[in-house]
């Protein structure tokens, strides 16, 4: 491995990290940073449920549409949110650049993981355990909450909530399954088609076409929703309130996943 070769040639841990490991993990860090920023900016459920008096752009856009019926204000706030995410996207692309982040090497006959200091080892294990316990508690609370009458007040066992689901919520469940079943193959087909065009053909404006097809990844869902409301809420294309608009949104939102998966598969052929 490159790390072992670096240590064998006398490089320190810091120099090996700075010159070998860090350049190779930059794309992963940049993508994680971009995803975290976009998801944080576009997060609506957590701020609306837990935020209290702390308003964020996503909730302000929602309240402008639902509470005030002010599409112009919602669009203006959406532009502000979009400008932040696009700036982050451009910075991420600039930071990665056009460099190649792959290693061409043979498989070593024997490789053993390099040890890390004991203190760091124990610290990472402790942090991981805390995170695992927190995750189990959160999801366990959600699971247990479905079997008690009133969480935190009357914790007696009951199946009343699931009986209500079968009466009042089963139709929503079926609708969700239907929309997902329709959207998934269409998203895969569109993503694979675009991936095939980008990977196998050269044509005018290929780069802008690829960039535009991936742009939905960098646009918060709130902004996408505002765009669809303003585009398909008036004649001749009145799709608002129909299943078609939801399917189109799902395809547009998840298309980058299909494109990247298709490009990765086609590159192996």
Automatic annotation (TrEMBL):
Entry-linked InterPro entries: MetI-like, MetI-like_sf
Gene Ontology CC annotation, any one: membrane
Coiled coil residues, start to end: none
Domain ABC transmembrane type-1, chain residue ranges per copy: 1-90, 173-269
Keyword Membrane: yes
Main location: membrane
PANTHER family in the record: POLYGALACTURONAN_RHAMNOGALACTURONAN TRANSPORT SYSTEM PERMEASE PROTEIN YTEP, PROTEIN LPLB
Protein name (record): ABC transmembrane type-1 domain-containing protein
Organism: marine sediment metagenome
Organism ancestry: unclassified sequences, metagenomes, ecological metagenomes
């Amino acid at each position: 491995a490159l790390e072992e070769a670096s240590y064998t040639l006398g490089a320190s841990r810091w120099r090996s990290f700075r010159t070998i490991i860090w350049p190779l993990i930059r794309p992963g860090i940049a993508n994680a940073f971009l995803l975290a920023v976009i998801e944080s900016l576009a997060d609506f459920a957590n701020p609306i449920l837990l935020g209290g008096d702390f308003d964020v752009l996503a909730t302000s856009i929602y309240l402008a549409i639902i509470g005030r019926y002010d599409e112009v204000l919602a669009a203006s706030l959406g532009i502000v949110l979009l400008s932040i995410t696009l700036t982050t996207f451009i910075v991420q692309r600039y930071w990665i650049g056009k460099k190649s982040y792959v290693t061409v090497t043979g498989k070593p006959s024997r490789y053993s993981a390099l040890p890390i200091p004991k203190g760091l080892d124990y610290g990472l294990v402790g942090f991981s355990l805390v995170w695992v316990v927190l995750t189990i508690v959160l999801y366990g609370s959600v699971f247990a909450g479905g079997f008690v009458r009133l969480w935190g007040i009357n914790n007696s066992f009951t199946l009343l909530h699931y009986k209500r689901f079968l009466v009042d919520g089963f139709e929503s469940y079926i609708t969700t399954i239907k929309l997902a079943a329709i959207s998934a193959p269409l998203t895969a087909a569109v993503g694979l088609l675009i991936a095939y065009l980008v990977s196998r053909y050269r044509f005018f404006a290929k780069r802008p076409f690829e960039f535009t097809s991936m742009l939905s990844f960098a646009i918060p869902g709130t902004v996408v929703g505002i765009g669809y409301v303003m585009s398909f809420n008036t004649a001749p294309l009145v799709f608002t309130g129909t299943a078609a608009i939801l399917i189109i949104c799902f395809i547009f939102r998840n298309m980058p996943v299909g494109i990247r998966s298709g490009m990765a598969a086609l590159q192996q052929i």
